[in-house]
Amino acid sequence: MKFIKSLYLNNFFFYVLLGIIALFVCAFIFPVLYNGVWFLVLILITFLALDLLILYIARTGIEASRDMPEKLSNGDLNPINISVKNHYTFPISIKIIDEIPFQFQVRDFKIVRTVKASGEDKITYDLRPTKRGEYYFGNLNIYVSSPLKLISRRFTFDKDKMVPTYPSYIQLRKYDLLAFSNNLFQYGIKKIRRIGHTMEFEQIKEYVQGDDLRTLNWKATAKKNALMVNQFQDEKSQSVYLAIDKGRVMQMPFNGLSLLDYAINSTLVLANVILKKQDKAGIFAFSKKVENRVFAEKRGSQMQKILETLYNIKTDFFESDYSRLYVDIKKNINQRSLIILYTNFETMDGLNRQLPYLKGIAKSHLLVVVFFTNTELNEIINKKTESVQEVYDKVIAEKFMFEKRLIANELKKYGIHSVLTQPENLTLDAINKYLEIKSRGIL
After folding, report:
1. Are the folds of 1-166 and 169-193+235-440 the same?
2. Are 274 and 303 in contact (CB under 8 A)?
C-alpha cells in the first residue's frame, strides 16, 4: 500500500504514451508501422520497469529536513530552510511541495531542483505572516525522479509542526543598537534642541570644543589647571506606558497587516529602547475594557513579559471606550508618566467625542497620541487626474488629509503631543518622539 501511495507517473510518461497512441492511429493508415509501434510499447514498458527498479531499490533514497525559527516574526520575511541529501548514485530531479500553514493561502507552492549524485542541496524560501498566533506546518513532500523521468517517488518528512508567530522581533533586533548608543541621531532620527539641563549629574570631564560654556566647573578648573565642565545625562527610571487601542479604528489593513499589529510591533521595539535607556516600560490595551496590562518596571524579565503579553492580545474590534481608559489610568497610574497612545482618528468628529477624556489624561500625565495617515489617500492625491470623477475623488482625499492635520493641531492646542505617521514609519517616528521628550526633559 505504501508503494502505491508513493508512486506517481510524470507528465513525460503521458507525453510518450500520447505519441505511441498517435502512431497506432497512423498504423491504421500505414500498416507497415504496426509492428514498430508495438516495439516502442515494449521499450516504454522496459524503461518504466527500469525506472521503478532504480528508484525503489534504495530503502532511503534521500534525506531531507525543514529548518525554521522557533517563532516567526509578524510582518517580516522569515527564512525557511530545506536541506536535501541525495543517497542515489545518479543525479535526481526533485519537486518540493511543502504544506505551509493555511494562513498564507498559498495553493501553488512548488520548488523544482536538480541534485547531483551523492550530493546535497539547500533551498531557502521566505514567509511573511500578517497575523499573530499558531501556524501549523504539514508534511514536507519531495518527489524524486531519475534521469529517465517516467515516474516519481514521493518521500515525506517533518510531519505536523507548530510555530508561533510573535510581534516583530526582527524589528526589535534592528533597532536594538540604537538603545545602546549615546548618540541616537541616526537612522533618520532628527536632532533635538535641548531645553536647559536635566537634573541627573553624570561626571566632571575636560572641556572640548563644542561643550556648553555654561557648564564650566570653576572649582575643578582651578584644581586641575585646565578647563573642566559638568556633564549631565537624561533622567532615568521614569515611567513610560504604551497604550494600544484595539478597537474598531485599528482594524484597517495596510500591506496585509492591520494597524493594530503595526502598533503591537512598534510597542515591542519602543519598550526595548525605553528599558535600555534605563526608564521603566509598561503596556496595556483597551477597547470595551482595559486589559493585557504590564505595569511599568525595570526588571530583567520585563521584555519577556511584554513580549508574551503582546503575543496574547486578542480583539473583536469593538468600539473603544475612552471613558473606561480615563478612569483606569486615574486609578492605577498614580505617578506622573509618559503615556504613548496608539490609536487612529479619521475625522474631527471622531476626535471631539474622545477629546474630553484625552484632556483629562493630559492633566496628570504627559500624553502622546500616535495616529495614522491613510496611504491610499496619498496615492489618489498624487495621481494625475483625467476625468471629472477622478478630480472629485482627489478633492475628497485632500479634504480627509487636511482633516488629519487639523486633528494634530487640535491636540496641540490642549498640550497633547501627537505623531501623525504612515504605518511603515510608525516604529521610527515613535522612537523619534520618545527621544525628543527625553532630550527636552519635559516629562
Report:
1. no
2. no
